[in-house]
Amino acid sequence: MSNELNRFSLEDDCHPHLLQLLRIASPIAVLTGAGVSAESGILTFRDAMTGLWANFDPADLATPEAFAKDPATVSRWYDERRCKIAKCQPNAGHFALAKLQAVTIADRRSFALITQNVDRLHQAAGSKDVVELHGTLWLWRCLDCGIEYEERGAAFSSYPLRCACGGSKRPGVVWFGEDLPKHALLTARRAAGSSALFVSIGTSGAVHPAAGLIDVAIQSGARFLEINPQETPYTSKAHWSLRGKSGEILPQLLELAGAE
Length: 260
Ligand code: OAD
Fold this sequence. Notes:
This protein has 260 residues and is of the alpha/beta class. The protein is 36% helix and 18% strand. It is built from eleven helices and eleven strands. The structure holds 2'-O-acetyl adenosine-5-diphosphoribose.
């Protein structure tokens, strides 16, 4: 098959080769970004005007330097996001991915779900072994003794948060300028590099090394499906590029592939 873009909407006959791959490909690797949680009511980062970064400069909040300078403000900002996310539920796109994983594994095929998101809505929808490249808002860890705390409760009463050892606790998310968790990145690179079908959903492809997984997959011979309402820097490399919301497209795609 040529590599030129096969852009179509699901109203057309969905490409038979793509549906066949969803039924038989192994391994399948999926990379998700903030767009997959947008229909759950969680702001994305870069959507013009509505994105999280439209109101904040990441450098002021999402860096080790910002935390060192003003731990209380940074902690409060992340805790507010944590409490907002606590009220959100997985959407049809999350559930469809959990279903795709279950069907693939039941067929004794391999499946990897890699996410840049920190909301754990994939896990809430039933996805297993999710590779979290950017950590999670539910875990906070002590800067001094390294103890990790799972924080599921109400908003904290004062900031910064204190560890039992007296040290200050930071959010368990990756900040700009920080390395990604080594094991997660290695797992993700292996999954991308061995995938027969690589699916990128709801990511602008703006942040590396996560976005680079797409090139790892394509250079290793994977067929590449992108699902996003907008074009991205990777659209031109897609064998299939479905324009639309993941919460609408994924359930339809699974139904067409008979994976429902
Ligand atoms: P972005 O906000 O950069 O991109 C969100 C993408 O989702 C955009 O391409 C939108 O077009 C798309 N989108 C919006 N609504 C959608 C929907 N309903 N269905 C499908 N797609 C939709 O978010 P990410 O690409 O995830 O990192 O950003 C990557 C990283 O940048 C984040 O993990 C975060 C941020 O800095 C860290 O904080 C380390």
